[in-house]
Amino acid sequence: MMPFGQRMRRLFADGGLRSKIMTSAALFSLVFVVGILVRIVSTVVLTRLLAPEVFGVFAVVFMFIHIIEQFSDIGLRPLILTREGELDDDFLRACWTAQILRGLLILVLCQLIALGLYWGQTSALFPADSSYGDPALPLAVAAIGAYSIFNGFISTRKFVYEREMKFGQVTKEGLISTVTSAIITIALAYWLRSIWALVWGFVAATLLNVFMSYAMYRGARMGLNWDWENFKIIIARGKWVVGQSALSSIISVADKMILGFAMSASTFGFYYIAKQIAELVEQFLIRLHMQMGLQVFTALQEDGEVTGLRRRYYRYRLVFDGLAMFSAGAFLTFAPTLVEIVYDDRYAEVGGMIQIFAVGLVLIGPGLLREAFIAQRQFREMAMLTLVRAVAIWGGLFIAILVFNSVIAALFVVSLHRIPEVIILLVMGDRKGWVSWFKEIRLLPLVLVGMAVGWGMAEAWDWVVA
Predict the structure, then answer these.
(1) Domain spans, the chain
(2) Burial degree of 342 (CB within 10 A; 0-12, 13-18, 19+)
């Protein structure tokens, strides 16, 4: 069997790497574009079937499940992707076993959180008109815990396909899951007309993903494996991932925790929708990068030649930076018109929120450098960098709400809280010779191009409906 290092060098030779990146980007783009179209259609339908406060309550439900997931994340996917040598079946089964145990833990924690929320409501700790005061919240949190049990049984064979950058099956799975999940959720919304449509739709999508992980990926037969040597590897590599994931969850829920109290349920629903729209571009770029970033940076660093790495790194970033800058400008001028097209008059506030979130898109490109450090297994340094980001968003939101009593200021904090992290990341990269300061800003003019295109689209729409 060819050694892992030699196989990776052959796979990621300049021509092979470029081909893999282009294929991965094309397939992922297909899935994401379909996802956007499905989301637009489902959002239009769901916002007419469900009241705005339903989305605010579900944002809180999703926040809690996200917190628990991140605090219990032991990094099985990156562990399989970066594991030295050949992957044996026993190791994959040990990862599967650890995944199931994590699912059981998440289920128990969801029930405890649901009890805490119920106690808080009966004790009048939450404002009655906030998302936290909604009577359905505790039951929804308890019910969505069922998702974790099913999710734990997803086959780890999928990660092997990703490790080898065989994204054909991954693409098929993504397309099937996206379309089917939307259909199920819309059908449930038409029938239930409540938050339970979103909760049970989420659980149904997970069941579908479990089924497809076995039906669409060949490889090791899953089964429980309690081998302690494999578990020691999982624990040793996963401890820093747990810390970083926990901090990431603290970051991602800061706005929902603080603004969920500061806003009414309906306004928080507007916020949730605006953030979903503004994050479409970010999610596309970050998920595309996460799909192949570790593999790419591992390959780029193997020869140890800094100049070549820097050149290929910025070539890799070209599309990421270009799309982020252009989209930021387009959202700044087109967001109000977009909301007018997609939603009814109740959602007019969403446009201004999207414009604020759009400013933060310019920070996406520099943040991709994290994967270069993770490829070097500098998990401790990246965990500390995530801590900086956590302090920035929590501190900024508390100042915006408690000191200035300004929701607008809080929105800008959410949009721009990554600035301290990005500055430190660039300084660290510069010390290694990876960063070119000119190339960091070379595509900023595309923001103006995006603004011009967005303005033109808005004017064209006004002309059509006039």
Answers:
(1) 1-262, 279-461
(2) middle
